[in-house]
Amino acid sequence: MSFPKVNPTQTTAWKKLQYHFEALKKVHMMDLFSENVSRKSDFSYQWDAFEVDISKNRITSETLSLLFQLAGETKLKEAIEAQFSGVAINETEDRAVLHTELRNFKTMKPEVTEALSQMKVFSEKIISGVWKGHTGKPITDVVNIGIGGSDLGPDMVTEALAFYRNHLNLHYISNVDGDHVMETLKKVDPETTVFLIVSKTFTTQETLTNANTVREWFLETASEVAIAKHFVAVSTNLEAVQKFGIASENIFPMWDWVGGRFSLWSAVGLSTCCAIGYKNFESLLKGAHAMDIHFQETDFSENIPVLLGLLSVWYANFFKTETEAVIPYSQYLNKLVPYLQQAFMESNGKGVDRNGNEIEYQTGSVIWGSTGTNAQHAFFQLLHQGTKLIPTDFIVFTESLHKKIEHQNKLLSNFYAQTEALLYGTKGEEMETPYKVFQGNRPTNSIVIKKLTPYSLGSLLALYEHKIFVQGVLWNIFSYDQWGVELGKKIAVEKLAKLQKE
């Protein structure tokens, strides 16, 4: 089974969409709602604890029909089958893309089952206090040292699930800027801290620089023998890890078939597992797997990741939008946007297609945003009255974890008010000054979830992973390599050599 390589602009559907766009581009969504009183229900989708409303988009049923045709002509269904079948769809690196196997408990690979068991045992020892530091004191702090996918995912999930956290203090060191590592070390006690070094090759410059600095700091008050009780690694480079002083039983695996930005489900998420406990970590995985099944098995007409991915293509390639905003109305999700920035922009920021040809159409939208309601007092002016069209995802959980009903009602009222204001604007109202006019007709998706739990968070993150996949297939690009980060690394090594000689 080969991965499809279809130039979308050469399809019949693309040409039809161009004509359709010309007819629809100036239509106001208000008129579409007036013409169809059941539009909201017609364009809303229920799945599990999710309700996804795409009615506030500049689309009609014909738009979706043509987008489904485009998905068919670019062989999206075949691409989905290829990924889940383990085909090496990351062809430039000759790797399969199977992060979904990290959360499929029915057909889980033996090595994944073993790694999860190892994570369970380790995390329970740390949480219970059975694991002691070299002076006999229980562990109070866990520090994750990594960068990119070895930092953004675990940090984001640990923050998002803070409600479910135990007594451990979690810290994340990523930037090679020495200020980051030194400020973190001020907060921890070497006798009661475990450091998790997460690096597939154990050669990543930022991670190894920080790890060595931490090691030197630790050895100021302890012997090298003590390293075994305070340092753990997630890596494939066993020789380098053991040379660092880490005991073989404290090494967790990584695999080539899991890309870094999709690795939080693996032992890369060990810090999260320690923070929320193995049971909650497993629930996170199961929530993601439920979305995997939905994506793999549901008809495109009801398939939420497919629908959201198709809408992105519609805006990027026909309306020529260049960015998408994501606004989670939950302070717990304040690190979701940086995580999605890497996931989307490292995956689909490509200018060469799967046939090796330079691309002449838009790919890889810029992802940005912040939490509501903070964002309303920051950049919503641009969303409402700016000259740029910015499709926006609004995410909210209807149930308050802390049962603060007054706060929650005000949060929800703002969530619904903003999408409505972006839709309607001041259309039909007489304004005394043009400066108060809102044109409206600004597209939004509403993702409404019952409650923030490990399970629902897993589903939400998997939803976005599959949206990335859909975009990549339709744009005919390889979403799972990241050659674009290599050139800067190479030049930095050369610059460093020069600086060290001076």
Automatic annotation (TrEMBL):
It catalyses: alpha-D-glucose 6-phosphate = beta-D-fructose 6-phosphate. Pathway: Carbohydrate degradation; glycolysis; D-glyceraldehyde 3-phosphate and glycerone phosphate from D-glucose: step 2/4; Carbohydrate biosynthesis; gluconeogenesis. The keyword Kinase does not apply. NCBIfam families: PRK00179.1. One of its GO terms (cellular component) is cytosol. It is found in: Cytoplasm. This is Glucose-6-phosphate isomerase. Catalyzes the reversible isomerization of glucose-6-phosphate to fructose-6-phosphate. Its main location: cytoplasm. GO terms for biological process: gluconeogenesis; glucose 6-phosphate metabolic process; glycolytic process. The active site is at E346, H377, K489. It holds the Pfam family PGI. Belongs to the GPI family. Keywords: Cytoplasm, Gluconeogenesis, Glycolysis, Isomerase. Its EC number is 5.3.1.9. GO terms for molecular function: carbohydrate derivative binding; glucose-6-phosphate isomerase activity; monosaccharide binding.
